[in-house]
C-alpha cells in the first residue's frame, strides 16, 4: 500500500481520482490548493503525488519549483493538467514531475500508470 497525495482544486475530480486509487488499496490524502499541497509535502513523505497545474494559492509548477531536490527524488510526481502544450509538458518535467497526464483523462489510464510506476 502506497501513501499518495492528490492535489487538485476541483473537488469532483479529486473524488474521482481518490475513488480510482483507493480501489487499488492505497492510502490517500488530499490538498485543494497549491499551498496546502506544498505544506503536506514538506511535512510528510509520499510515494506518489498527483498534482494539478492550475490551482489557487500556488500552481502545481510553483509547488514543484519550491520543493527541495530530495523530495522530488524520493517522490513520484504525476502532473495532471489541462495545460497540455509541449512547453507545459517540458516545464513540468524540468521542474521535477516524472510523468505528465493531460486532462481530460481516463481513470483507467491513470490507474494503469499508477500500477506501473508503483
Query: How can the largest sheet be summarized?
Result: 5 strands, parallel
Total number of strands: 5
Look up the CATH topology. Rossmann fold
The secondary structure category is alpha/beta
Give the end-to-end Cα distance, rounded to a whole number of Å: 9 Å
Form type: globular
Secondary-structure element pattern, one letter each: EHEHEHHEHEH
- Average the pLDDT over all residues and give the rounded result: 95
Describe the protein's architecture and organization.
This protein has a single domain (3-117), classed as Response regulator (Rossmann fold). Helices cover 47% and strands 21% of the residues. It has six helices and five strands. Strands 2-1-3-4-5 form a five-stranded parallel sheet, with helices on both faces. Helix 2 (34-43) runs parallel beside helix 3 (60-66). The longest helix has 12 residues, at 11-22. The protein is globular and about 30 Å long.
Summary tags:
118 residues; alpha/beta; Rossmann fold; 6 helices; 5 strands; globular
Amino acid at each position: 500500500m502506497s501513501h499518495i497525495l492528490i492535489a487538485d482544486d476541483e473537488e469532483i475530480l479529486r473524488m474521482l481520482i481518490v475513488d480510482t486509487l483507493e480501489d487499488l488499496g492505497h492510502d490517500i490524502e488530499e490538498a485543494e490548493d497549491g499551498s496546502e499541497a506544498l505544506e503536506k509535502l514538506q511535512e510528510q513523505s509520499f510515494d506518489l503525488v498527483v498534482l494539478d497545474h492550475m490551482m489557487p494559492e500556488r500552481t502545481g509548477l510553483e509547488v514543484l519549483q519550491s520543493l527541495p531536490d530530495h523530495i522530488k527524488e524520493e517522490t513520484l510526481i504525476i502532473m495532471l493538467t489541462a495545460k497540455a502544450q509541449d512547453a507545459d509538458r517540458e516545464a513540468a518535467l524540468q521542474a521535477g514531475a516524472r510523468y505528465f497526464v493531460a486532462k481530460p483523462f481516463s481513470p483507467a489510464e491513470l490507474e494503469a500508470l499508477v500500477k506501473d510506476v508503483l
